[in-house]
Amino acid sequence: MHSDVDERPFAYFRIFFGILMGWQIWTVLTTHRLIDDFLVSKFYFTYPGFDWIQPLNMAAMQNVIIMMFVASLCFTIGLLYRISSIVLFSGYLYIFILDQTLFFQQFYLIILLLFLMIWIPAHKTESIDSIFNTKIPAPQVWQLWAVRFQLAVVYIFAGLFKLNADWLTGEPIRTWFPEISSIGVWIFVYGGILFNLCIIPLLLYRKTNTLGLILVCIFHITNELLFNIAIFPWIMLVPTVLFFYPQRVTRNPQPHYDKATRGRPVTHNNTLKTLCTLYIAVQILVPLRTFLYPGDSSWTEEGRKFSWQMMLSYKNVESFQMYSVNPTTQKRRDIDLTQYINEFQSAVMIRNPLLTAQFARWISTKFDPPAEIYAQTLISFNGREPKDMIDTTVDLSKTTRRILPGQWIKAL
Fold it and tell me: What is the largest CA-CA distance in the chain?
């Protein structure tokens, strides 16, 4: 577990990962509209327990982004590596927690990888730090397998969740590409499943890892060309380097023995093993919670976040209407979403019944007396005929934020 491994793959991973983050942060920094549009909102879809975390003012938010960009440069060249890792992790996590509509798989994966990188001495070589400090410890076996495990979680759960009725019948591929032939659809369907479930074994086995690398490149570059899913394909490509290079495993010095232990080596592995076990359990159990909810989570959105369900659904909004009802006069009033949330938040919310209910609970309090809130969301899901996603007879202001299934969500 504490054997040293070749530091070069980690150095290359650090460099390319840092370049990707720097490019992403620079895009946000130079596209001022991204920050401007976000800060004009009067309501943010906070995560449970994190309502106290709110956006800063315009100047402060820009300073946060600038600080993250500088940290990404330092991370890339290996200057103050530990500090830059912590700054990047904290910055990404802060922005991620601000609003649930900012949930993207690549965003979540970046945070997880940065958390792991905090503990990995990826600046052992090919870094400014290594020039001034020749005593940086080498990466260890457990650190190598921690990143490999994280990638395996992404791939395997992405494959397992593709084993559902819609994907196996070609949806939403048929809806996205109506001109594609049946053979093309099945290549997408079964090729996606086989790739996700088999790529990690192919990369781990030395005789097939070159084939695995070729398949990784083909798969992710195809995704980038067809779906334009930002930097996610590249974020998945870069860590593949950790499956290559001779691992040059060397043994650490013999452990110290103490009389009090009666000949057993004095180690501090128990805490590390406990933390690793906890991390593994969370990464496995959180995606599995999806199966605790009834229905298709791609429709209900219950248990879908943090579960690596990707490319499984297409929700075409036919119509959306939200209105308030005065409980005293029964007077009805349509709610203009643009007065409270930005266009992007609105687009995500109307496809997510959980966020719709969250907004309804908040907007209800802006009326005197607090109003009843109803919503009508007509959605075509994966090529089906449009249907209501939310029970139009339920006052959404009376719903509660809880982990139990939402009774206002209509079955698919």
Answer: 82
Q: Whole-angstrom Cα distance, residue 50 to residue 107?
A: 18
- Cα dihedral 116, 118, 123, 128, rounded to 10, equals 150
Q: Hey, is 44 helix, strand or coil?
A: coil
Domain boundaries, the chain: 7-128, 140-252+270-291, 314-398
Q: Rounded to an integer, what distance in angstroms lies between the CA atom of residue 245 and that of residue 206? A: 10
Q: Does residue 39 contact residue 60 with C-beta atoms inside 8 Å?
A: no
**Listed residue (288, 330, 333) closest to 308, CA to CA:** 288
**Cβ atoms within 10 Å of 267's Cβ, excluding its own:** 13
Which tokens hold the place of 347?
Answer: 């687009």
Q: For the chain (length 412 residues), average pLDDT per consecutive 10?
A: 84 96 92 80 94 92 95 97 97 96 94 96 94 91 94 97 95 93 94 96 93 95 87 92 73 48 55 90 96 93 94 94 95 95 94 96 95 96 94 94 87 90
Cis amide leading into 172 (omega within 30): yes
Return d(Cα 199, Cα 190) in angstroms, integer: 14
Residue 323 three-state SS: strand
Contact (CB, 8 A) for 346 and 337: yes
Give the span between the Cα atoms of 36 and 347, in whole angstroms.
Answer: 17
Residue 203 near residue 243 (C-beta atoms within 8 A): yes
pLDDT value of position 249: 56
Tokens of 59: 């100047």
Amino acid identity of residue 51, one-letter, is D
> In what helix (H) or strand (E) does residue 325 lie, and over which residues does it extend?
strand 315-325
Token pair, residue 142, equals 């457990």
Please list, in sequence order, all residues whose beta carbon lies within 8 angstroms of the beta carbon of residue 162, skipping any fewer than 6 positions away: 168, 189, 192, 193, 196, 312
How much is the pLDDT for 252? 52
User: Helices 105-119 and 81-98 sit at what angle, rounded to 10 degrees?
Assistant: 150
Q: Is the pTM higher than 0.90? A: yes
**pLDDT at position 31:** 83
Record the tokens describing residue 391, joined without a space. Answer: 């029970």
What residue type is 79 in one-letter code? L
SS3 of residue 127 by DSSP: coil
Work out the number of other CB atoms within 10 angstroms of the CB of residue 145: 15
